[in-house]
Amino acid sequence: MTGVVTITEAASYQIQDMMKEGGEEGSFLRVAVKGGGCSGLSYGMGFEQEMNEDDIQFEQHGIKVLIDKESEPILKGVVIDFKQSMMGGGFTIDNPNAIASCGCGSSFRTASNAGKPEDC
């Protein structure tokens, strides 16, 4: 199955390093959307050992990725990258479905799901 999200090579190296450091090798990477943040929705990423029966599962760069069915339409077309700068590094998420994001960069809103805004 083609992935719902695209993980760049730079992001995959960082994710694999995090898996090794945390003893999470062989785990799934869960990418999800949850309500919250000042624009209404926020992203979540973490490692899990098992998938749920309603999860969408695919693999990129050797990373097994899980996305729940509720997050799938919001995450379709997302690109996850890792950027390194003089101030450090971090993951970036480019979501073509986002119509607005907050000033702190932690949350977003789509045309179909505004979520419930909270303070940043």
UniProtKB/TrEMBL annotation:
The record's annotation in SUPFAM superfamilies points to:
HesB-like domain
> According to the lineage, what is the superkingdom?
Bacteria
The Core domain extends over 5-105
Q: Which Pfam families match?
A: Fe-S_biosyn (PF01521)
Q: Which InterPro entries match?
A: ATAP, ATAP_core_dom, FeS_cluster_insertion_CS, HesB-like_dom_sf
Q: PANTHER family, alphabetically?
A: IRON-SULFUR CLUSTER ASSEMBLY 2 HOMOLOG, MITOCHONDRIAL (PTHR43011:SF1)
Entry protein name: Iron-sulfur cluster assembly accessory protein
- This protein's species is Litchfieldia luteola
